Amino acid sequence: MNTLAVILPAAGSSTRFGGPRNKLLEILQDKAVIVRSVEAFSQRDDVPQIVIPTTFADELRPILCSGKTKLCAGGANRAESVRAALLNVSKSIEWVAVHDAARPLVSQDLIERTCRAAQQYGAAVPALPVNLTIKQADGPLPARVQRTVPRHTLWAMQTPQIMRRETLLRAFEKCPLPLDQITDDAQLLELIGEEVWLVPGEERNLKITTPADLRLAELYLREP
Q1: In a domain, 131, yes or no
Q2: pLDDT in tens, 187-198
Q3: Domain count, the chain
Q4: What is the mean predicted confidence (pLDDT) over 134-142?
Q5: CATH of residue 203
Q6: Looking at residues 99-118, what average pLDDT do you find?
Q7: Where in the sequence is the domain holding 25, given as residue range(s)?
Q8: Does residue 213 fall inside a structural domain?
Q9: Residue 207 maps to a domain
Q10: Considering the entire predicted model, what is its pTM?
Q11: 3-state SS of the chain?
């Protein structure tokens, strides 16, 4: 993979984090969460551009030191933010990785593994097996169980989700659903009939959603 642009959506409200401060600005050891996410990609020679769609650009500019980063306005939902960032990606770049800005512990091994699979199959996403028993029911609870979903075919998505820039652009153009119903980026490709392949994810590649996730990330960083 010669060139890879990275999109780090950072326009969320951090509502589930439960505090007045944006979770992406929380300090994880000595660096903000989003800084760690940026550095995971900015150190790579094959990444010339990192685009961050955001609603708090003034707070990000002082802490983002990489000359590869570009900020743009975020959208009303994740898919709209990704589309806004995609339109800011250089047309000379063939591949795009969309990575949750709140996944600061992504490893180089995981990035490489996903890049190789994307090159081979066209689009690739890291995933973990779903280990919990999943029941289908109409919410809110209490609700009657309709069935138990076989979990051996279920996988929990992670990021980075890597695909060709032109393919993702075409997926946005042809998307048959409102963008607020799109839950991850690979879904856009699925909806227009493009193949998406899964590769093994990593437990360490957790997404910071609650304060407990931040404490767990700190424990991972202390591991030798």
Answers
A1: no
A2: 999 999 999 999
A3: 1
A4: 94
A5: 3.90.550.10
A6: 98
A7: 4-126+158-222
A8: yes
A9: yes
A10: 0.94
A11: CCCEEEECCECCCCHHHCCCCCHHHCEECCEEHHHHHHHHHHCCCCCCEEEEEECCHHHHCCCCCCCCEEEEECCCCHHHHHHHHHCCCCCCCCEEEECCCCCCCCCHHHHHHHHHHHHHHCEEEEEEECCCCEEEECCCCCCCEEEEECHHHCEEECCCEEEEHHHHHHHHHHCCCCHHHCCCHHHHHHHCCCCCEEEECCCCCCCCCCHHHHHHHHHHHHCC
